[in-house]
Amino acid sequence: MNTSIRLYVAAIAVAAGVSLTLAGWSVPPDNAAGYWNALAAFAVLGFLSEASYLRLRVGRGETNASVAFIPFIAAILLFDTGWAVAIAAVSELAVEFAVRKKPAIKIVFNVSQLILAVAVASWVYKLLGGIESISRFDFNPIAIAGAVVAYFLVNSSAVSAAVAFGDQVPFQKAWARIGGPSLFYDFASSPLAALLAFLYVKW
């Protein structure tokens, strides 16, 4: 593994650490028990979704495709930024260790870039007027769309850059391999995240 990819992974890990320190970790005082139950439920759902993945060959390496972005984006609509990030990070970390058994540097990168994607998406959601809550569903299509775009932009860009550094190919070519073919389907299925959040709040 070349030096450039190691430095890149280190930079992503540092950025993820900064995101964790800047994230909010509030818990509603009037429904703390319900909040912890919701966190546990989405952590389990995230793990199961992430564990059900497809392995795709990309250049000299491989990547994984799953529907875990659905519960992860739904978590952005339900929880404060730190907790949404924690759900995604714990789910990813558990799958990497228990199911995929990848090398440490790949685990660090996968978890770190996911932390960044969820944190940025959560901040964009709030910036556009979205309100996270497990007791009231706030249907704000602009905020939800902004969160979806931010999530996939950060995720696909981070992974594409890793492929570009690892395979020593131009970023555009790496992005075409990673993001191009699947982004349409990811965006098309992203409304399921809002539906999942709505159903959780309602029932």
Short précis:
The relative contact order is 0.15.
Task: Describe what you observe in this structure.
This protein has 203 residues and is mostly helical. Helix content is 74%, strand content 5%. It is built from nine helices and two strands. A two-stranded antiparallel ribbon has the order 1-2. β1 (54-58) and β2 form a beta hairpin. α3 (69-78) packs across α5 and α5 runs antiparallel to α6 (141-167). The N and C termini lie far apart (48 Å).
Distance between the termini: 48 Å
Radius of gyration, whole Å: 16 Å
Average of pLDDT: 88
Major sheet: arrangement of strands: 1-2
Note the overall shape.
Answer: globular
Helix content: over 70%
Strands, total number: 2
Biggest sheet architecture: 2 strands, antiparallel
The share of residues in extended strands comes to: under 5%
Given helix and strand content, the structural type is: mainly alpha
Order of helices and strands: HHEEHHHHHHH
Which spans have pLDDT < 50 for at least 5 consecutive residues? 56-63
Number of helices: 9
